[in-house]
Design brief:
By secondary structure, the chain is mainly beta. It has two domains: 3-121, Immunoglobulins (Immunoglobulin-like); 127-366, paralog of FGE (formylglycine-generating enzyme). The chain is 9% helix and 35% strand. The chain is built from three helices and 23 strands. The strands form seven sheets. Strands 1, 3, 5, 7, 8 and 9 form a six-stranded mixed sheet that branches. The protein has a four-stranded mixed sheet with strand order 21-20-19-22, with no helix packed on it. The chain has a three-stranded antiparallel sheet with strand order 2-4-6, with no helix packed on it. The protein is globular.
Length: 367
């Protein structure tokens, strides 16, 4: 794929330099945000600290990447004369990685360069902002989370996980062994997900390989949640994009809201609110596309108080909470379970290495 380069510049004048004492050193440019591996879903703020002896700065943002088509000039802001901001809109990028670098130039033409870092673009990801504060937990006790965070609006899809697998395969971070895709987690080789016809019971979202690329055996499942993924496979995806799996508390706050709903959408349920066993949706007895129960398909809008979808049914979602002797807690119920499992208090446990056709996940990240 062709690579594109875009340079956005803005001049900042602070006075006239002394031509008799010409500065011969380039500016010192430090990229202070984001960090390498950050995943950008719609826009990303890029922040540089620049210092120089001279009075004039020309600050360039250099972007190397696949699918860059936004060619408009972006505005920049600064809070001090040495801190420069760029807001990079990636909504029209193709998914993949881009390289960003800052280039500072003083009034004498001397240049200074920041380090290059790689960040990832996935404009199929949607996040909702969750403010700090109280909520009613599954024991109907008022609890508090003291920090702001973001949660994915939908579970991770097959399409999104395939992007990760192909990036990881190209960089030799994963391998195929015994019908499983495996990779290192905390220094130990772990099973991430099954592939081929063994992927899951109904062959939903089964993964195969063509021309050294992981693809869906049936692309109609690309917008369905990834299934058959272990806790290790979920953790690897999240950490690759500078995210993490949610705690049970973080998950319940988004699902229950401050009022402590029994179901993400309220305190009642029927067959057109979520995907469970015998829910009679068009994909019975399997998964539905993420966000299907949004009120636009002859069903109710089943989003949670904070705006997350599929927090009841479709797939159980991995968390970071661990119960000794039982494994990690999963929340939300699945398409294989009856309707009573669709409540916000329902949970099950499983060991990290298990690959189950009704296990999926979504990610969170701190603000």
């Amino acid at each position: 794929m062709n690579k594109f380069l875009s340079i956005f510049s803005i001049l900042f004048f602070y006075g006239c330099g002394d031509s008799f004492n010409q500065d011969v050193d380039g500016p010192f440019v430090s990229l202070i945000y984001p960090e390498a591996g950050y995943v950008a879903s719609d826009s990303v703020e890029i922040r540089f600290e620049v210092s120089d002896k001279s009075q004039v700065f020309k600050m360039n943002l250099r972007i190397f990447g696949n699918g860059f088509i936004n060619e408009h000039i972006m505005s920049t802001e600064f809070t001090t004369p040495n801190i420069f901001y760029f807001m990079l809109d990636v909504i029209n990028y193709e998914p993949g990685s881009i390289i960003i670098q800052g280039v500072g130039e003083d009034e004498f033409g001397n240049e200074g360069f920041s380090t290059e870092i790689e960040i990832f673009v996935d404009n199929t990801l949607d996040f909702i902002n969750i403010p700090s504060g109280v909520y009613l937990d599954s024991d109907n006790v008022q609890s508090q989370i003291s920090y702001d965070y973001q949660m994915m609006t939908y579970p991770v899809t097959l399409e999104q996980y395939l992007i990760y697998l192909n990036e990881a395969f190209e960089s030799e971070e994963i391998m195929i062994s015994d019908n499983k895709i495996r990779g290192l987690v905390d220094g130990t080789m772990r099973d991430f997900i099954a592939w081929g016809d063994s992927s899951n019971l109904y062959h939903l979202g089964a993964i195969t390989m063509e021309e050294n690329q992981f693809i869906a055996m049936d692309s109609s499942y690309n917008k369905h949640p990834i299934t058959g993924v272990s806790w290790y496979g979920a953790k690897a995806f999240a950490e690759n994009y500078k995210m993490r799996l949610p705690s049970v508390a973080e998950w319940e706050k988004v699902a229950r809201g401050v009022s402590g709903y029994i179901y993400p959408w309220g305190n009642y349920n029927n067959e057109i609110h979520s995907n469970f066993d015998e829910s009679e949706d068009p994909w019975e007895p399997g998964t539905t596309p993420v966000g299907y129960f949004n009120g636009m398909n002859g069903n109710f809008d089943s989003k949670s108080p904070f705006g997350a979808y599929d927090m009841a049914g479709n797939v159980w979602e991995w968390s970071t909470d661990y119960i000794i002797g039982e494994g990690y807690v999963l929340k939300g119920g699945s398409y294989q379970n009856l309707s009573f499992t669709q409540t916000t208090i329902s949970e099950t446990t499983s060991f990290a290495q298990y690959l189950r056709e009704h296990y999926g996940f979504r990610c969170v990240r701190n603000l």
